[in-house]
Amino acid sequence: PEVTAFLSCWVYEELWHGEAFSRFLGEAGCGLGPDREEVWADAPFPSRVGRNSWIRRRLLGKGHASHLATLLGSMVFRDFVALHMTWGAINELSTLGAYERLIARTNHPVLVDLLTRIIKDERRHFAFYRAQARMRLARSLGTARAVRWTLDHLWAPAGTGVRPQWETDFVIAWLFNGDDGRAAAEDMDETIAQLPGFAGSRLAARARGEAIARMGPDFEKMRVAAPLAAFRT
Fold first, then answer.
1. Dihedral of CA 71/75/80/83: which sign?
2. pLDDT digits (tens, 9 = 90+) for 69-102
């Protein structure tokens, strides 16, 4: 019951995080495909309906496969929730790390304020996922081993597959490049390593290294569309 109650709150808050980012991008003059819908701070809810439908259509096969895998996994894996909570903990922690790195790399006051507010929710999300993961992994060594194997072989950064791989790689490489980025990834790994069965985990460092390797050494010279902020007064 506590997991169901949490997920009800989680999906509600994540929905509004997306709407907040959508309105920020709209005010900054950033139009997104396929319809380049204009969005502003007090635009009608929900925003970017066409884009969301377009993404769902493109993910149709992958989405169905993911749902089917979840159903099958819950049938054959005795404590599937342990996997769900551990996977969620890593995703929430990586999201937190990405937002903190974005704050460190921008001087945009509105974006910093928006991220600071959203981070408060993300910290609560991570705390719940981590507590549930720790409790469930500690119950059984076999469960901990199975969850560790699954994440080592199947986990990818949140959002992978929704956009082209090079876009995901660019975001990771840009946010986590350099010594500060490496340290942030290592801090995330150290946090996850505290979970039962996850000693020595290197998921964040591995994802960072693979993204930077795929982008190449000159990725920061790439020209990326970044419209100037044009906030109305």
1. negative
2. 666 766 667 789 999 999 999 999 999 999 999 9
The upper half-sphere exposure of residue 208, i.e. CA atoms within 13 Å in the direction of its Cβ, equals 24
**Distance (Å, rounded) from C-alpha 194 to C-alpha 210?**
23
Distance CA 27, CA 82 (A): 40
Tokens standing for residue 116: 């600071």
Q: For the whole prediction, is pTM greater than 0.70?
A: yes
| Angle of CA points 117, 129, 156, to nearest 5° | 90
Q: Name the β-bridge partners of 163.
A: 160
> What sections of the chain are H helices per DSSP?
2-27, 49-58, 60-76, 80-105, 109-139, 141-154, 165-176, 178-192, 203-215
Phi, psi of 160 (to 5 degrees): -60, 130
Cα–Cα distance, 160 to 209 (Å, whole number): 15
Q: Torsion-angle region of residue 156: left (phi > 0), alpha (psi -120 to 50) or beta?
A: beta
Who contacts 69 (Cβ-Cβ below 8 Å, separation ≥6)? none
